[in-house]
């Protein structure tokens, strides 16, 4: 149906006395057999579904408001409204309603509102008492009028009768003339009566009376009457505020006089409702529902009129993005858009969609990019609110913009990086703005609201973009504050240096690293420990970043896995387990818990090779016998490993840390891990015993190259399962590509080195428990070993005896020459002796972590 005359929006009044939009459709009046009467039907314009089916009841009171609204109540506390696109359509349906009820279409209310308790009394009332007789409008009658208005408020039928009498006799304008006389005569008693009268008329809740009271001619006198509250010793000065203090700022001159009048009226009526009128009691809360509706529909009309004026909006955007615009003007423009977006929330979904598309077309996102980087805190705050409206409405629209922008701009000025920078640089001690921005970032990177079409996958495209262009900006504070040479190499580039003035004093030369502030708050007592600024604001910021990274671990799988491996991120995060702020240590632990919760063997190998349980166990031992959240969280982590029977992690924990943990008996977690480990060891031994000796030989093993190929295949499968498309890996340096191999070589070197380094041996704490030293080089873990370390690896001979070295060399050559991934060798008689010698030498050689003695 294309008839715009009957195009309507359907609204219902909710429990909070706010109008909820139920949809847009076309209304018709027809006889419905099931309802046995003429009914109003509204069918949705999108799919033709039935939005409304309401019988025109002969006793229901329908009200016509503002020429395009019809409002009525279907049942107790269930109000309905039809908002027509055109006045002609409203008049046509109104005639149908009046025809069913036998009323003249010229009336604006078809029935008196009658509640059940008054039906009998109303039937007994004589026909001659149709209207209430009003006293003559004179000064000496004001008290009588006030008593009359106050007395009818408890009776719906009497409220209706009084409203009709006030409307028919033009009584409100006469009362306002008396107000002017009382004010000139300084008649305080009369002014107090007029306050009660005008307040009572507002509580009649009649739209027709509101239109008179809120007209340009009357509204300031209405406000004047409401200044003289008898409960106040001195009258308020609301008129002075509205006329002198409150200034109407036109960022761009509004030429439409009707629009200007509507804006003024809405502001003043909102002021009356929010400021002047006292908060209604439980018994009065329904009295002003029509006033709320009046404001609501005014806002809808204002947004629609502004949106249709393309010349006006174009001019606003032009000035907002013009470099010549001064700061005060730009602040006004941003505040205008903030209020404009707030008003748009009253629109129905289809109109709101068109509204935001109009803003996007005009360039709201590039404009926000400019104003969010300004120094003015008020402007940045308003810009953040506007950005939140856009993200909540359509995350895909924002994502599409930033991906297109990345093709033309540097990473430093990308919108998302500007948002991250604002989060990092929030000067609020409580980081209120940073928390809001973090929530918006999480919405943008949430795969749940990303679209997947036949032509493209938004998920894979956007996540590739985010990890290549934005993730390094997000993690910069974390990596900087957990590195040994933090701030020395200017990680934040030029645009982050000023943000971190509260962390470091300014550096005077490039060769001298900045000196951290709060020296006594830096964790780590020895020079091998990693530096970590531990002031409260930094800790809060790092907690926010960790919360976002934890979200990524849960939802991004492949991309975040690649990033964690390349940056050795978990090791850096676990440095924060040393923080004096328990909430930050718990955030770091939660990050590790999410990783382990995935039960991914890639992550498990990464954790065991890096010995990353060490800082967690140190934190548990340092916590001592205190029973607190940190203790419970660490125990839960190990309990999860035990319950889920993650074998590789169980073996690593028992083999390396059980000596330090066996004294913990208030939970059975660690003994349970030992039991699981021993059971698995027994099963493996039973399997070996049932296998022929040639297969059981250690010489029958997987080729190292084949293992790497299998891992790469597994990695690619994981990628395809997540994005259903080939995803480009995060850009990384050559040293990062070699991370797994160089890391293993580094760890082999550490085996030899640690046997000579007495400082790295486990030490007893004052409580008698064991303490580990977490001093792995971060650069080595990242696969960026120094030249010296590489030379050590090259010079380190294999751990074998002289007598068997030649054989070992020959065997290694034969393994390399074999193309298959499995290599079978002849079982020589003296092999078992050689294997025993090798095992003895392995036991004698230093381990990555020495066995712990009692």
TrEMBL record:
Encoding gene (name): PPP4R3B
GO CC, alphabetical: centrosome; chromatin; cytoplasm; nuclear speck; protein phosphatase 4 complex
Biased composition (Basic and acidic residues): 731-762
Domain PP4R3 EVH1-like as annotated: residue spans: 5-101
Entry superkingdom: Eukaryota
Bias type Acidic residues, positions: 712-722, 828-843
Annotated stretches, region: Disordered: 712-854
Domain Serine/threonine-protein phosphatase 4 regulatory subunit 3-like central, chain residue ranges per copy: 144-679
Molecular function via GO: protein phosphatase regulator activity
GO biological process, one term: gluconeogenesis
Cross-referenced InterPro entries: ARM-type_fold, EVH1_PP4R3, P4R3-like_central_dom, PH-like_dom_sf, PP4R3-like
Pfam families from the UniProt entry: EVH1_PP4R3, PP4R3
Family matches, as Gene3D superfamilies: Pleckstrin-homology domain (PH domain)/Phosphotyrosine-binding domain (PTB)
Name listed for the protein in its UniProt record: Protein phosphatase 4 regulatory subunit 3B
Family under the similarity heading: Belongs to the SMEK family.
Ranges annotated as biased composition (Polar residues): 763-819
């Amino acid at each position: 149906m294309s008839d715009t005359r009957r195009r309507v929006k359907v609204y219902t009044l909710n429990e909070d006395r706010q109008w909820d939009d139920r949809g847009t459709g076309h209304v018709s009046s027809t006889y419905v057999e099931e309802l046995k009467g003429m009914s109003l039907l509204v069918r949705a314009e999108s799919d033709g579904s039935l939005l409304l089916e309401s019988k025109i009841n002969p006793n229901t009171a329908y009200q016509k408001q503002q020429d395009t609204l019809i409002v009525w109540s279907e049942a107790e506390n269930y109000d309905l409204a039809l908002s027509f696109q055109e006045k002609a359509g409203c008049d046509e349906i109104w005639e149908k309603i009046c025809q069913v009820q036998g009323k003249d279409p010229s009336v604006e209310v078809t029935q008196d509102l009658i509640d059940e308790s008054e039906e009998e009394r109303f039937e007994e009332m004589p026909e001659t008492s149709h209207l209430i007789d009003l006293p003559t409008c004179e000064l000496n009658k004001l008290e009588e009028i006030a008593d009359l208005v106050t007395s009818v408020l408890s009776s719906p039928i009497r409220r209706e009768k009084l409203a009709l009498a006030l409307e028919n006799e033009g009584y409100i304008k006469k009362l306002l003339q008396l107000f002017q006389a009382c004010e000139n005569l300084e008649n305080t008693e009369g002014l107090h009566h007029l306050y009660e009268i005008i307040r009572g008329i507002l509580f009649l809740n009649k739209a027709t009376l509101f239109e008179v009271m809120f007209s340009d001619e009357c509204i300031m006198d209405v406000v004047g009457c409401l200044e003289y509250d008898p409960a106040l010793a001195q009258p308020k000065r609301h008129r002075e505020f509205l006329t002198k203090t409150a200034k109407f700022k036109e960022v761009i001159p509004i030429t439409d006089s009707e629009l200007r009048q509507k804006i003024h009226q809405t502001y003043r009526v909102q002021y009356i409702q929010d400021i002047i009128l006292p908060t209604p009691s439980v018994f009065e809360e329904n009295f002003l529902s029509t006033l709320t509706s009046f404001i609501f529909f005014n806002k809808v009309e204002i947004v629609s009129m502004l949106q249709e004026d393309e010349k006006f909006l174009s001019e606003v955007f032009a000035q907002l993005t013009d470099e010549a615009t001064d700061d005060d003007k730009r602040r006004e423009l941003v505040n205008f858009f903030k209020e404009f977006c707030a008003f748009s929330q009253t629109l129905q979904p289809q109109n709101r969609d068109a509204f935001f598309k109009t803003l996007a077309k005009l360039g709201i996102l590039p404009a926000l990019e400019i104003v969010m980087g300004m120094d003015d805190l008020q402007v940045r705050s308003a810009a953040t609110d506007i950005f939140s409206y856009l993200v909540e409405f359509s995350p895909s629209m924002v994502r599409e913009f930033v991906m297109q922008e990345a093709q033309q701009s540097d990473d430093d000025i990308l919108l998302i990086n500007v948002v991250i920078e604002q989060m990092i640089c929030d000067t609020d001690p409580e980081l209120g703005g940073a928390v809001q921005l973090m929530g918006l970032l999480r919405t943008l990177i949430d795969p749940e609201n990303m679209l997947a079409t036949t032509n493209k996958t938004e998920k894979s495209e956007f996540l590739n973009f985010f990890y290549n262009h934005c993730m390094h900006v997000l993690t910069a504070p974390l990596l900087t504050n957990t590195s040994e040479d933090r701030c020395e190499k200017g990680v934040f580039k030029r645009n982050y240096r000023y943000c971190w003035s509260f962390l470091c004093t300014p550096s005077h030369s490039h060769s001298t690293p900045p000196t951290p502030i709060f020296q006594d708050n830096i964790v780590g007592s020895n020079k091998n420990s990693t530096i970590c600024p531990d002031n409260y604001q930094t800790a809060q910021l790092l907690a926010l970043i960790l919360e976002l990274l934890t979200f990524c671990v849960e939802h991004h799988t492949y991309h975040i896995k690649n990033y964690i491996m390349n940056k050795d991120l978990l090791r850096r995060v676990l440095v924060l387990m040393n923080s004096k702020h328990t909430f930050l240590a718990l955030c770091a632990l939660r990050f590790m818990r999410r990783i382990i919760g995935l039960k991914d063997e890639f992550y498990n190998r990464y954790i065991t090779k890096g010995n990353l349980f060490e800082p967690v166990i140190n934190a548990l031992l340092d916590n001592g016998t205190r029973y607190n959240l940190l203790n419970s969280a660490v125990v839960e982590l190990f309990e999860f490993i035990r319950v889920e029977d993650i074998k590789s992690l169980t073996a690593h924990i028992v083999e390396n840390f059980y000596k330090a943990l066996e004294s913990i008996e208030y939970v059975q977690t660690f003994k349970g891990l030992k039991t699981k480990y021993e059971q698995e060891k027994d099963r493996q031994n039973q399997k070996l015993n049932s296998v022929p000796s040639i297969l059981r030989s250690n010489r029958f093993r997987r080729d190292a190259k084949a293992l790497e190929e299998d891992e790469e295949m597994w990695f690619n499968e994981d990628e395809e399962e997540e994005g259903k498309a080939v995803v480009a890996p995060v850009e990384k340096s050559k040293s990062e590509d070699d991370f797994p191999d160089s890391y293993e070589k580094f760890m082999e070197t550490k085996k030899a080195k640690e046997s000579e380094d007495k400082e790295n041996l486990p030490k007893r704490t004052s409580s008698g428990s064991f303490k580990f030293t977490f001093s792995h080089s971060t650069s080595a873990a990242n696969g960026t070993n120094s030249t010296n370390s590489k030379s050590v690896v090259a010079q380190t001979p294999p751990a074998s005896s002289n007598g068997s070295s030649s054989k070992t060399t020959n065997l290694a050559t034969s393994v390399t020459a074999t193309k298959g991934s499995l290599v079978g060798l002849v079982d020589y008689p003296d092999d078992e002796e050689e294997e025993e010698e090798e095992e003895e030498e392995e036991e004698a050689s230093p381990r990555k972590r020495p066995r712990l003695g009692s």
